[in-house]
Amino acid sequence: MRARTAVEGPFAPIRRTTAGLPIVYVCDRIENLQHGLSSSEARIVAEAVDIRRRHFEAGRGAARAALAQLGVRAGSIDRGSRGEPEWPDGVAGSITHTTRLAAAAVARKEHVVGIGIDLEASEGLRRELWTSVLTPTEIHRVERIAHEDSGILAKAIFSAKEAVYKCIYPLEGEVFGFDAVEVLLNNELMRFSASPVRAFRGSRLLRGGEGYLNISTDFVAAAFLLPTEDAGEDPTA
Amino acid sequence: MLRLDPSEPIDRNQGLLDVGLDSLMAVELRGRLSRGLALSEPLPATLVFDYPTINAIVGLLSGMLGGEQGTDLDRESADSLPPGSAQDIDDLSEEEAEARLLERLDALDEQER
Q1: CB–CB of A49 and B20 under 8 A?
Q2: What pLDDT, on the 0 to 100 scale, is given for residue A149?
Q3: What single DSSP character describes residue B41?
Q4: Nearest to B1 by CA among B14, B15, B19
Q5: Is the ipTM of this complex over 0.85?
Q6: H or E stretch including A63?
Q7: Among A37, A92, A220, B82, which is most exposed with the fewest C-beta within 10 angstroms?
């Protein structure tokens, strides 16, 4: 295995689980990823407050580090109309950050059609936000869990849906809300599946996706991958 | 909610993403507006995508809260407004809606924090 120069942080267990797919994850502290911006990237955050600019720069820093490990040089990673990063041709990727960490995941499209990642602080999702994020079925499932853990599970579903959105939206270009997708966590809380609640462009892609979670005391990390057909066997199957 | 310095008010035409709004905060904002303003119809799930500035949101809300042209402000006509503007909406109702919105948000902030 190639040596990895950058840390993978909360995504390390996810990468190990998906070792059959050559995906590069880079995750590091915000302050370690201040490597500068291209002039067009700098224009994206020209109006932004300082902290937002630092987070953005860290995300781009993680993305460039990940691309370098993939053997792709990217001068500039610009932003699409809905905030999605514009990756070099032939690359699928995703960027996320919290107030402490930024992360990026990239893969070649011959292996992965789409990828979405999300990282959240592992504070539970407050009860009053559940109806904005969870479907009635998801609320029912979460409520069956012991009360002290239910907020974290709700947060994991939130994070999973963010990852799903970031994977699917760039492929089909239709925005969909939290109410459009239902997420089912597995018993070990390490994987999830996503199914459409209603049809939208991209909804048919959900069934072919693979969801991964890493819930720790500090973070909830989620990844949703859409492997290219015949990209290799699922190592966990 | 944005954890910004309250002594430096944000520009109402500045993109909410530019002032550090993340997706969880967006959920929170939408929830607070829906509850605080007791809206009869739900706000779009993609609120901050479709209405990316405070002024754009105020424009939407002033319609939903029954400004003169309120019922005309459906998604389509709102989308046709230039980003960050609410200029087709009657000024008075916009200001009323905004004052009400800010009052409500302040009240909610006190309740919740």
Answers
A1: yes
A2: 84
A3: S
A4: B19
A5: no
A6: helix A50-70
A7: B82
